[in-house]
């Protein structure tokens, strides 16, 4: 599988998903909309809304799906002070 997350941003149509394996740790920020995120080997799934940021690990399959509207996500290099993934447990929609 290729590094799907090499581009700085993606627009994901409502109800569709993108997936890939990042070659290095990345930060994802939802600029617009709401997405569901799942990471290979992580027992939890996550919902992120506009303005929220999440740390994606390197070398693991990640699936990101837009909810009921198109969503814009942006990628940046991960920062050491980024909020821990356990802070964003799956919540009922």
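^ structure tokens above, recovered residues below v
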């Amino acid at each position: 599988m290729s590094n799907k997350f090499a581009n700085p941003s993606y627009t994901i149509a409502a109800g569709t998903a993108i997936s890939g394996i990042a070659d290095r740790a990345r930060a994802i920020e939802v600029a617009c909309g709401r997405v569901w995120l799942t990471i290979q080997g992580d027992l939890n799934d996550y919902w992120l809304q506009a303005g929220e940021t999440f740390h994606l690990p390197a070398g693991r399959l990640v699936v990101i799906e837009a909810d009921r509207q198109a969503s814009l996500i942006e990628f940046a290099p991960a920062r050491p002070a980024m909020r821990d993934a356990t802070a964003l447990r799956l919540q009922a929609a």
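Confidence is low (pLDDT under 50) at residues 82-93.
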